[in-house]
Write a structure and sequence with these properties.
Belongs to the protein kinase superfamily. CMGC Ser/Thr protein kinase family. CDC2/CDKX subfamily. The protein is an alpha+beta fold. The chain has 13 helices and 14 strands. It folds into three domains: 81 residues, Phosphorylase Kinase, domain 1; 234 residues, Transferase(Phosphotransferase) domain 1 (Transferase(Phosphotransferase), domain 1), CATH 1.10.510; 55 residues, no CATH class. Helix content is 32%, strand content 14%.
């Protein structure tokens, strides 16, 4: 009796699945797990991302399909290669080229000394990969150090395109709940639904700053606290700096705080480095430098030349969480815009646990502060918390509050892709 089509498909699926021999667990993400494996047909080491298909309403199918579709079109030396994709036992398996480590491991490894040439090389490869995405009208929307993978030859490649989207159509709206919070552009934190490549540029600037400081640059505990960290570093934006800011959906007015000199935030950075950072950290997304313009900036043509990828330092095996730093200075006070009735003050705690710089406000304002700011204990700049025996703040992900809402948003967005 001849086999049915479904039986043939099952046999083919098993045949493909049996081709790969799993070795070890590499990590877990929002929608699945990643394994190291051997391709028994070629002997090549690969990474297999196993995604739980779930039910239609969960949107996981759409996320995986989008990643497959985009990676098939994005072929570049600085973008991860998708080798194969197949379903097996209720899961979708994506087979990628194997990468030894990621940029977060480099930043965290205290045995590695990053020279200006090394940092320039990492940033050049990051921006080259991002430039290819933007040339193909793709937003990455999840730029962060552990999504920048490093191969055995030192090459850096952009990975994890589960949140990526095609952009460029006028009036198209997207969810603003993308990127880990520390890498979100201010327009996203103010709730914009219409944005372009500038959100990736801001995140790349945060990664640039993290390479220079060897720690996350701005560590907010909530969206309003993240904005406070940004404004404390770069100053509260004035209307001429960002005219459209007051029209954003979640806009709230912040008390004016003057900008800190960039050279005080990055004391060892060169003038070219500071100039590029200032252009990437521009508040108005319309005035923010593009990725291609950033690659053409004099920072990359001046000495020292970028280190060749093969000569870049290699990270050790991933260890425990790295130390975080903080500076006990107040962020700016948040003021309600005219259409709001409450006054919000963000309060912070000192090292002894006592709240400092408090003002007398009514109970309603205190409740709003608790609810909105989450009583943040981390500050814009930081010192090594480990010397005080304190626990470092967890790196934000999209696994908690944003996850359910994001899944629903991805479901709604997918048909228009």
């Amino acid at each position: 009796m001849p086999a049915t089509m479904s039986e043939v498909d099952t046999l083919l699926t098993k045949k493909v699945a049996n081709r790969y021999l799993k070795r070890e667990l590499l990590g877990e993400g929002t929608y699945g797990v990643v394994y190291k494996a051997i391709d028994t047909k070629t002997g090549q080491t690969v990474a297999i991302k196993k995604i739980r298909l779930g039910k239609y309403k969960e949107g996981v199918n759409f996320t995986a399909l989008r990643e497959i579709k985009l990676l098939k079109e994005l072929k570049d030396p600085n973008i991860i290669e998708l080798i194969d994709a197949f379903p097996h036992k209720g899961n979708l398996h994506l087979v990628f080229e194997f990468m030894e480590s990621d940029l977060e491991a480099v930043i965290r490894d205290r045995n590695i000394v990053l020279s200006p040439a090394d940092i320039k090389s990492y940033m050049q490869m990051t921006l080259k990969g991002l430039a290819h995405c933007h040339k193909k009208w793709v937003l990455h929307r999840d730029m962060k150090p552990n999504n920048l993978l490093l191969g055995s030859d030192g090459q850096l490649k952009l990975a994890d395109f589960g949140l990526a989207r095609i952009f460029g159509s006028p009036d198209r709206k997207f969810t603003h709940q993308v990127f880990a919070r520390w890498y979100r552009a201010p327009e996203l934190l103010f709730g914009t639904k219409q944005y372009g490549s500038g959100v990736d540029v801001w995140a790349a600037a945060c990664i640039f700053a993290e390479l220079l400081l060897r720690r996350p640059f701005l560590q907010g505990s909530s969206d309003i606290d993240q904005l406070g960290k940004i404004f404390a570093a770069f100053g509260t934006p004035k209307p001429f700096q960002w005219p459209d800011m007051i029209y954003l959906p979640d806009y709230v007015e912040y008390q004016f705080v003057p900008a800190s000199p960039l050279c005080s935030l990055f004391p060892v950075a060169s003038d070219d480095t500071l100039d590029l950072l200032s252009k990437m950290f521009t508040y108005d997304p319309k005035a923010r430098i593009s990725v291609q313009q950033a690659l053409e900036h004099r920072y990359f043509s001046s000495l020292p030349a970028p280190t060749k990828p093969a000569l870049l330092p290699r990270p050790a095996r991933k260890g425990e969480s790295r130390p975080s730093e903080f500076n006990p200075l107040d962020g700016p006070i948040v003021l309600s815009p005219p259409r709001k009735t409450r006054r919000v003050m963000v309060q912070h705690r000192g090292l002894d646990g006592n709240i400092f710089q408090t003002d007398k406000v009514d109970d309603h304002a205190n409740e709003a502060t608790d609810r909105i700011s989450g009583r943040s204990e981390t500050m814009p700049m930081s010192i090594d918390l480990s010397v005080f025996g304190l626990r470092t703040p967890p790196r934000p992900t999209l696994n908690s509050a944003d996850r359910t809402h994001l899944k629903r948003k991805l479901d709604l967005e997918f048909p228009s892709s």
